User: Fold these one by one.
Assistant:
Number 1:
Amino acid sequence: MDPNWRHIIPPGQNQVISEGQCMEDCTAYAFPPEGIRIFAVMMRTHLIGKEVKLRQIRQNEELPPIAHDSNIDVAYQDFRRLSTPVHAMPGDRLVAECIYDSSSRKAITLGGLTMKEESCIVLTLYYPRQNKLTTCHSLPSLPTVLHSLGIEQLATDSNPVLISSPPELAGMTLEARLLSYDWQNHFNDFQDATRSGSFKPLCWGARNHVVP
């Protein structure tokens, strides 16, 4: 998942699930016809991550996870060799699924690069080499994020960003909504919206350009 503010982890929850998608179009474009074989992975979260899984979906069928760590340790995040290389084919979807425990936090945690923020990243080592794709991830679309917070529309060209609808939220800043949202009573709605809502796939080539 792209380390971005749209990656939101509500506070006070024993389990929050986030997913980063490497879409079928990306692997179909980049992987050689015979596919690749993944032989090692590094799974990364920050301080409140507790579980990471690299899922594999082929033609809408979920295959066994490529890798799964049910007790992620922020102090030990290195490449781990798989007991058997896993075959990934063009057109497969790869999903980084991260589970967080935010029960000790009183405020939301956003995606980012610092340790006080959070991440959901899986790096892979594989063969044979391909040079079309370097980074493959996703982030929730802005409409998905807004819907998860009960926001219908933002005001255009406002700084700070203001909510324009629904009427009961009109004039409130987006930051204030994030800070004041009733996560305890609406967490399930938020989780459903972020897991089933639309997202933006991001596939980057070796020269830092979007592919395909």
Number 2:
Amino acid sequence: MVHFGHANALRQAKQMGDYLVVGVHSDEEIMKHKGPPVFSQEERYKMVRAIKWVDEVVENAPYVTTLETLDTYNCDFCVHGDDITTTSDGTDTYHLVKAAERYKECKRTVGISTTDLVGRMLLVTKSHHERDETKGPNKNDLKEVGLSQDGRSPYTGTKQFVPTTKRIAQFSEGHEPKPNDKIVYVAGAFDLFHVGHLDFLEKASQYGDYLIVGIHSDPVVNRYKGSNYPIMNLHERVLSVLTNKYVSEVIIGAPYTVTMQMINDFKIDAVCHGMTPILPDVDGSDPYEIPKEIGIFHRIDSSNDLTSDMIVQRIIRNKFLFEERNKKKEAKEVYIENMIRKQ
């Protein structure tokens, strides 16, 4: 997957230099060294290109970073998080650039990982929602999907992401719209941020100059999605959207219905929605009734029908493979961590 933890590493890497080149591994490389990827390589290439701190993407980047790779793309050094990453045989994937002193580290974002998100999808619980943040997942369930509640690995597990205003500020553009900017508004769950969302936001941004994205709260999303949705809680979804280069501003916990007051307050010129069905509000009303009445509502066909449900179905179809992926990843990290401590 491509999540805000990855984006935060890229943000930190960009601060270390002037031009950020990001290598993205192929499906074949990931399958060999880590296990099945959630997003396809084409989806990951596109997602990384849309992260606002990225200048260039190298497709099919080798799993072990070499000096030749750095030189080919005119890179002075390589950056990775302070977590452990190895090949399938346990080799440090950055040993070559470390030996040449062309390696730097950034801080890993605690509380978010692909392994954790896969575990949430397999658990089918709501313990990750913000309204339930005092509760934890069942310990036996965690073991079943290959996650450790006691956090034996310092990198993989179920440590909860703790949102801060500093992190939101780091991700935010922080600029106001210009006086003559045309302001576009869209709203939704934006759960498990994927290329379907990306293509929609790109199309929506073409309706104006300044794109505001409203992110619905966990209870609101759960009302219209059901089950254990959203998989990512409100603040995780906010950070995911803020990483996107087409997004100018985010409304945290946006109301489900777009009111005239909201349109006036934010000086909204266009309200856009994708091709997914529009479900009524709790009182049975159309949440886009007012934008439709005043002629600023637009339906957008992004030509991409990927949904968060489809992402979850990918996981469920390959449940055993992903459970084994989680178990092997944590076991490898625990082993390496123990070896480091013994040195």
Number 3:
Amino acid sequence: MTDQPSMRLLGKVIVVTGAARGQGRSAALRFAAEGVEAVEGDLIHE
């Protein structure tokens, strides 16, 4: 992993749906580790 976001994502904000678990969580964690700005959301009905 790098200290700076990918140049393709520089200055952009990504949206990750389903960020509480599964593939959405994995994507959210990876983007956060890369320093990418993200909006994350999930709906969990219990």
